[in-house]
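User: For a benchmark we're assembling, each entry needs the component sequences followed by a predicted structure for the full assembly. Here are entry 17's components. Please fill in the structure.
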Amino acid sequence: MTEAPVHTPPLEATAERLEPGDSGPPLNAAAVLAAVFLIATCGLIYELIAGTLASYVLGDSVTQFSTVIGVYLSAMGLGAWLSKFIGSGVVVRFVEIESAVALVGGTSAAFLFLAYSHLSFFHPLLYGTVLLIGTLVGLEIPLLMRILKDTYELKDLIARVLTVDYLGALVASLAFPMFLVPKLGLVRGALAVGILNALVAIWSTYLFARIVHRPARLVLLRVEAFFVLILLLVGMVFADELTALSEDEMYPDPIVFAETSPYQRIVFTRSGSQFQLFLSSHLQFASGDEHRYHEALVHPGASVAAGLGAPLERVLVLGGGDGLAVREILKHDSVRKVLLVDLDPVMTTLARDFPLLAELNQRSLHDPRVRVTNADAMTWLASGAEAEGRFDLIIIDFPDPNSFSLGKLYTTRFYRLVQRVLAENGALVVQATSPLIARRSYWCVVRTISASGLHVQPYHANVPSFGEWGFVLAARRPFDPPSELPDLELRFLTERTMASLFDFPRDMSEVETEVNRLNNQILVQYYGAEWSRWY
Amino acid sequence: MVLKPALSFTRRDVLVGLLGASWAGCRRLPSSPELSGELVETTSAALAHRMRERTTLVPTRTEEVPVVILGGGIAGLAAAWWLQKSGIERFELLELGRAPGGTSASGVRDGLEFPWGAHYLPSPGDSQPELVQFLEQFGTVSRREASGALEYSETELCAAPKERVYFRGIWFEGLYPRAGASPAELEQLGRFEREVDTLIGVRGGDGRRALALPIAECSDDPKLRALDELSMAEWLDRLDFDSPRLRWLVDYACRDDFGLRPSETSAWAGLHYFAARTDAPDEDSAEFLTWPAGNGELVRRLVKAVGASRMHCEQLVLGVEPEGDGRRARVLVLDAKSNELRALIAERVIYALPSFTRRYLLSGFENSVDYHPPYAPWLVANVHLKDRPRSVGFPTAWDNVIYGSNSLGYVVATHQLHRERGPTVWTYYLPMADRSAASARAQLESLSWADASSAVVAELASCHPDFREHARRVDVLKWGHGMVRPEVGTLFGGTRQAAARPLGPVHFAHSDLSGMALFEEAFFHGTRAAKEVLGGVRL
Ligand SMILES: Cc1cc2nc3c(=O)[nH]c(=O)nc-3n(C[C@H](O)[C@H](O)[C@H](O)COP(=O)(O)OP(=O)(O)OC[C@H]3O[C@@H](n4cnc5c(N)ncnc54)[C@H](O)[C@@H]3O)c2cc1C
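Assistant: Structure for entry 17:
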């Protein structure tokens, strides 16, 4: 049974009064608890918004997401701790903090969507905002508890506030997915919650009027809160314009083409004669130096296959829907058939028909020797790939393993499936992220390929718009790094350059790693941890 | 005066009854527009009830069969597999359901498979040689030449990410929600893990492990067995484990494995869940094997190994009694398809039916043990989705658990197919843990498809904003006697052990003889009974 509220002030309360000289009548306790409830609901919703935003814009990149939530929760702890430094004027501080939460929290989603455009410092901004909101929210309840201290006995106070706080959290966690996100979306949802906070701020100026020392302060606070409220209401009206604005700003150069396929957001940007392709806002290539990447991806493997005695007639490309690797492959006259397996039909259609790209890949996908299949590489390999026969050269060019759905394409299981279509004397090449930035990830790919039963030769190349980039060459039989290059009109590779790619300087040399398997997906963890250190 | 429409009122009651009090405040009751589905039955309930009426019918035919296996669950199938492997040709298996499998049954729709009951098997070690042998036969495990260590197939081990938990509106990795846990709570989690680690290493006075698989191999030491006299909740209290998150984790574990709350679960059983799947302290616990059809995949393999021609489905066993001098047994069985009643005279019978049937089916044997343990009713729903709903937080895992819910959340049946897009099936599990087994069973029986499916939809929509856009169909299955419940004091009283001993020509095999419904136990009892048969008769 809950006890009735005790109105005699507990011992402590006489020592530290809420406001100097205050001895007014007791507060309307139910109303204050209602405020606690609203605050708690809003507080959790901000956390959910930050989390959702992080997972929407950063993909299902796991570590980022947990860090965002972690930062929010520790910031709340920080806020609670900071509250003890607020000595007097608790009510005034409380109202100010409410207005601040309303302003920062309410505009947070809109602000972060806009900030996302400035890729380079999005992360500090995201964490900064989360830290700020978390700290402010963390201050709210301790301050309210102090305000309520004269109304309830401590034990009872804690029980009541915690119950109401818990209820608020419960309501938030139901309302957020069932109502807020589907009906309002993130930007408007955040604004709506901010409006609630602003209303609580305004309401508190009336609620606590009796216990405030200088009523004139209150009027000022009220004006502040009204100002925030109006700002947020305006935001509600213009929310759509705001979100439309943000994408153009996401990229350093003007967008010349953008399309959303079921799998990714495809964006081309252009400045002068240069252009770039972004897939789900990750840079895929820049026309200025992509030749370095694609020459390094294709020709060392072709040399090894030839050296092992493969006729280099049949080539398989997994990923690489932009057609640029195919362009390099077709430079070898022996090639009779190229099969390109890429998940996204929108991408391969663009590679064929979008002038900018078709020019860059020299219309490689129009070549009669080339066939395109749109499928998930893993599913394709596991069912029916063998009907295509075996390949002398296999080029594997997937996006980096930043999610479980990509990480599976770097597992022992995957490389065993690939081996089923690799010719006895054939070779395969895998793009394997940056050995400089993600050193453990890179060597994990090397180890995984070798654990799948292949012999490997790791190498790397410098591609200015990416940085130092890593590849892995592999074959069924032991082999040496390639030394011969046919005469192919290349812009980057010479025989001597190629030989140098197989040398690893100290800061990229081999490190111990586990093997990436379907049942551990350890690479996704390595990758998340390593890239979040840099960006 | 306007009365509330009666339907919505009861629907809310149902929701609160199934999902818990937190749904009481739910104003707008979720409807399930455009959702189709049905109540599914693996066996005809009406038929099964006939088991309880003593029949006075006279069989139209009498046949002689050397060995008859009653029940085509895992225990019956394992017995059949062992007999077949040992070169026994002449035996018959009788199963009530439309297909073998029992509580490991599975289904298929639009090319996608899904479990209706058991969905995983922890990868066994060398303490379960018969089970390893079975898995080797189908290439799930092989032995490394150099070390002799077991190596499981990468595609059959549960792929990462394995588990996540929905906590305060966000999905988090793993089962224990670490986010926001206070240092004191994390300290308790660590202490709990150390307690479990200690138990993994404990051996009784007889040198056997305290908690291991199969349960028959566990130590007899009374000091260890005393744990059965304590509830899991009491055990936690005694060690001052009061962290809400830890208590929830244990509550989840007890409901997951036994369909019971910790306050009723034998502490021996509760700790067995945490300790038995690890070989030595500090070692990782066994990884799970799983398939789109769940353990239905193992059913299929057992059926394949044994040969479908030896299995007779839609056969209701109505009685087992001694024949002649009692060295043989007489089995009365009703063919539900032809409605024909047969009598089978068998040298040996393997009774792989749930033990609660003994009281209705066994008659005329001396020293017959009436073993009638309680069983947890379960509700299982298979939700068919056009595409994958969005999640906030950690991406979809194999097992998706909802913190604080009465349900266990859902398992993604297509997880092992590695397709991130397109149609999928989610298998939703709700153990009816909150009441006595009998009243929970009554509650389950009265549940309509509409009530059950709207509860399922309400809960899943509460953790996925766009769930309703993707859901197409919800099929529901009610398991009246889903799992034997290892309640406090039920494990080592003696009745259970006595019930496993043969009665003349009748040998017993069912997972409930272990007091816990586990694949390993069903398999153990099946092969054990088959060995008893092989040892006892020349055929
Ligand atoms: C919802 C659910 C989820 C589960 N999940 C797991 C899991 O993930 N992992 C795990 O290891 N275990 C799980 N289990 C436990 C599962 O019960 C065991 O793994 C195993 O399938 C038990 O097999 P059994 O042969 O002992 O019993 P049963 O499956 O009960 O088999 C008995 C058979 O006898 C038949 N029968 C009964 N009466 C008659 C009659 N009169 N005449 C003829 N036939 C009759 C039944 O139809 C049935 O096929 C789960 C159980 C349930 C209910």
